[in-house]
Amino acid sequence: MTDNTVAPIAPSLTRRVLRNVLVPLALTWMLGAVIALVIANYFSEQAFDRGMLDDAYALSANVQAGERGIELLLTPREVATVLFDQIDTVHFSVQRLDGTLISGESELQAPLPVSGARYRFSDVTYQGKPMRAVTLEHDAEPGISMPYRVVIAQTTLSRTALVRQLLGFALAPQILLLVLLAVWLWHGIRSDLRPLGDLQRALDRRDVRDLSPVAVAQTSRELQRLGNAVNSLFERLGHSVQAQREFVGNVAHELRTPLAGIRALAEYGLAQHDTTVWREQLERVSERQARASHLIDQLLALALAEEARTSLAREPVRLDVLAEQTVLRHLARADARGVDLGARGLDDGVVVMANEALVEGILDNLIDNALRYGGRTITVELAGRTLSVIDDGPGIPLEAQRDLMQRWAQGPAGQKLGQGSGLGLSIVSRYAELLGAELRLEAAEPMGLRVSVAFGEAV
């Protein structure tokens, strides 16, 4: 059943960066504007209250003792002049402390000052309208036989208009600056991320077989690291693909001949009726199969060497123990061929940082080559950190040693015997390179070949 679920489209990186920058900045900016507005409104309220208190003092200055007791000396016209305001409506009341009216509006009431205070500001509702009021109390003074209070209340239209103006003047520039900043950041972020888009388009246009490095713009450290990581991945993939191609080509090239020979021997044996011929053909088939199996092992080992180039794990390896185990593993084969296989220098423990599988591969291939092409004696020698395989065979001429390090190259002895595939020394050379060891081919005394692998510092 086909899954038709459509993956959600991820948001643009430009928008995400812009959002993550602008949203906190806008919130911080607006919070700062609100705080500034609250402070400005507080001080404007103080100014309005102070003006209203001055009006209360102006009225109280005109309260005197008259023929009818305490009275306000100002006429209604004069009171209107003192309390004039172009926007707000102002109400007043002059009262004795017992609440009886001296002048003004009797229904106008406001909270009294607290103990020890002469005046008090408060918010009241008068005639169905919210108002700001101040109550000012006066003690008895010369010329005035008893104390009194002045109450003034005015509407809050001026205050509300001022708050709106402050809000507009505070927020409008902030919003404008935020829009300009958003445009600037949008262009800046898009410009900085453009090389990333170029890299993505270059990868989209890349052919599946093209693993060459991509061009990386040196505009930022992060982009440079990303480009280097992509190119490093391409390099590792290139090595892996090359190793696979070589392995497939090697298998196709080298197995064709032994498999065709096995098939020809089998067909010939089936065409005969003599059991002696059958046995002879089966023995030859077994020999060809063993050669093909050995060839496959070497091809796999070479492919492993190519893969290990990027993922080789090193650990402490006991060369003396490993050499002894390898010699014991090949003793039966050496005895069957009449070859004296021995070892020396294994008494002292030598530990190096290497890979056990690769060291075993080196020894296996060197001993196998010596058994195929060497003489009657093979010695595995450990001298310090140098591991050697010595035989008393015909040796290898100096001019042929370099060629034998290449794949499929065989010396005269191998070509004459028709054995091997020419991969043994190539595998040893590649393993030594991976381990950081030095491979040397030298003439043995009095005759033969010494193949030595010198490892790095001991542990």
Walk me through what this model shows.
The protein is of the alpha+beta class. The protein folds into three domains: 15-164, Beta-Lactamase, CATH 3.30.450; 247-307; 312-454, Heat Shock Protein 90 (2-Layer Sandwich). Helix content is 55%, strand content 18%. The protein has ten helices and 14 strands. The chain has helices spanning 13-60, 76-82, 157-205, 221-271, 275-311, 319-336, 356-373, 398-404, 412-417, 424-435; strands spanning 63-66, 69-72, 90-96, 101-104, 119-126, 129-138, 148-155, 315-318, 340-344, 351-354, 377-383, 386-391, 438-443, 449-454. The strands form four sheets. Strands 4-3-7-6-5 form a five-stranded antiparallel sheet, covered by helices on one side. α5 packs parallel to α10, α6 (319-336) packs parallel to α7 (356-373) and α7 packs antiparallel against α10. It is rod-shaped. Residues 405-422 have low confidence and may be disordered.
